[in-house]
Each structure stands twice: as C-alpha cells, then as structure tokens.
Target: Tellurite resistance protein TerB
Amino acid sequence: MKNTSKTMNELYEHLGKLFYAIAISDGHVHVKEWDKVKEIVKADWLYVDEFTDRYGTDSANQIEIVFDGLMEYGKTGKQCFQEFKDFYEEHPHAFSKEIKTLTKMTASAIANSFAGKNKSELSMLSELELLLTD
Model:
C-alpha cells in the first residue's frame, strides 16, 4: 500500500505522542528530554522522506509540534502510547524498516537523556520493541 501525505503526517504526529509518552512516563518531561527530541528530529527525522504538510514544511516537524503541544496541554503517557499503538496497528505499511529502527533509537535516546532509563521507561521501551518487531 502506498503512503499518502495524510498518512505520513499522521505518522509523525503519532511519533510525537510516542516520544512524549516516553518522556512523561516518570511524571515529568525534563528539559534534557525535550532537547533530545529537537536534536534528533533535526539530525535524523527531517531526512527520512520527502513528505510535507499542507504548509510545505517537512512532515517530520510534526514530531516536535505535537510533543510541544502535549507538554502544554498534556495527556498521560499511557494515553499517548495507546494512540501510537492504535495508529501502528491501523497503518503498519507506513512504518518502513528505517522508520522502525529510528523510532526505537529515538525512544531509547529520550529515555537515556535524563538520569538513565527508569522502570516505567524500560517497560514502555520493551512494549515498543515488541510492537515494532517484524
């Protein structure tokens, strides 16, 4: 199945939710976690594909936009993780091998960015690994 701009924009929105879920899993998003998200989006995610949003900017920017919005208005990490999981199960074709690998790497880097991985982050990372395993 071919990925559309709409599906890919939604993918990046849900990645923002996933990364927020990892960061908030200990009850607080630390500055180092937010900085790590911005760093990895700029270094890696902007180069994954050529999809753009309706304003012509790279769709991967949705990761930061959604993450930032969730810090402002917040949902629980569990809610965000479940929304990501639901999206994945509905659109597995949107997740290339490269995107799966980068998703796991980014989630792990966020978890490691502040005081190492805690129990709740490890649990979420394990669930993510199982979800994204082919």
Observations:
- The chain has a mean pLDDT of 91.
- DSSP finds six helices and no strands in the chain.
- Residues 81 and 95 are 16 Å apart (CA to CA).
